[in-house]
Specification:
Layout: H1 3-15, H2 28-35, H3 50-60, E1 72-76, H4 80-89, H5 95-98, E2 101-108, H6 110-118, H7 128-151, E3 155-159, H8 166-172, E4 179-188, H9 202-205, H10 216-230, H11 239-242, H12 250-257, H13 266-272
Antiparallel strand pairs: 1-2, 2-4, 3-4
Helix pairs in contact: 1-2, 3-7
Bound molecules: flavin mononucleotide (FMN).
Flavin mononucleotide (FMN) binds next to strand 3.
Length: 278
């Protein structure tokens, strides 16, 4: 099968709608690698060469950065005691301790403030937008690291749950004021193929000229049914609170997930690290 036909089939699976991909379009190899994305949480014990990790970091840090401010950094966690302590904080995600490589992406609002001090300039920008920009830069770098790893046949899994333990992770990594953990990233050679996650239809998430959520409930129902046919949930979340339902789709799962408070203290942590956030 040609790359264009493979991409059409992958997109049909992902979004449940037809796509036409012209075989003459440029860059289809890279497009296919992006479309094939799937999170990988099981890795072969085969180590990943340190030079590959350096290359992945270089790709991540080549990604766009707001105003070229470069408000993000990466920690390669090589020390096994540090890694195992982070893994021990999150026992229900054993892949954190098992992956051959573990990176932590950071939002860095510190360097630019240091630069202001070095160049004897005022810094009237320690407000919410600084945190937002730092998180955005970190997120773009993380996504680019995933794409780079996948282009090389590696598998990856971002880990934002480290933010449930932000203060401890920050202490373990010696993070100074105004440098905060954004997410970890497990990387390794895949031990399984992972599962493709179907996404909401483009008709719902790509808007034309104006935001439109008119048919959202129907579109969500249809999406739930499509996901259920492709990959039904094996377990239901928080059954002690919500019981077992016959139809358990993506929207039920996400509603249950966000029926529990998550990281309500993260804002206080970010403020305690020197960001103003006003
Ligand atoms: C910012 C971010 C944080 C994530 N945090 C975690 C995490 O803490 N633990 C985990 O196992 N997966 C985590 N994931 C992986 C998502 O669960 C996964 O991407 C999602 O289920 C969709 O699957 P897909 O990536 O295969 O499309 C994270 C993904 C992103 C983008």
């Amino acid at each position: 099968m040609t790359a264009s036909r493979r991409i059409e089939a992958l997109l049909q699976d992902r979004f449940g709608e037809p796509f036409t991909v012209d075989p003459g379009w440029p860059g289809l190899e890279r497009i296919e690698s992006l479309i094939k994305h799937r999170v990988i949480r099981r890795y072969s014990p085969q180590p990943v060469d340190a030079a590959l990790i350096r290359l992945i970091c270089a790709c991540a840090l080549s990604a766009p950065s707001k105003s070229d401010l470069q408000l993000r950094d990466v920690v390669v966690v090589e020390n096994q005691a540090t890694r195992q302590e982070i893994a021990g904080l999150i026992p229900d995600m054993p892949w954190i301790g098992q992956a051959p490589v573990f990176l932590v992406f950071l939002g860095n609002g510190r360097r630019i403030m240091e630069i202001a001090r070095l160049r004897t300039k005022p810094f009237p920008n320690n407000h919410f937008d600084l945190v937002f920009n730092a998180a955005t830069d970190a997120a773009i770098a993380l996504a680019t690291a995933v794409a780079a790893a996948e282009a090389m046949g590696l598998g990856a899994c971002p880990i934002s749950v480290i933010r449930d333990h932000a203060a401890r992770v920050g202490a373990l990594l010696d993070l100074p004021e105004r440098v905060i953990p954004f997410a970890g990233l497990c990387i390794g050679w895949p031990a399984d193929e992972g599962r493709m996650s179907p996404r909401l239809p483009l008709a719902m998430t790509v808007h034309r000229d104006r935001f439109d959520e008119e048919n959202a409930p129907d579109a969500i129902d249809a999406y739930d049914r499509r996901r259920e046919q492709m990959a039904p949930y094996r377990t239901q979340r928080d059954t002690q609170m919500w019981g077992e339902t016959a139809r358990y789709g993506w929207s039920e799962d996400k509603a249950r997930q966000y029926a529990q408070p998550q990281r309500g203290d993260f804002g206080a942590y970010v403020r305690s690290r020197g960001f103003s956030m006003d």
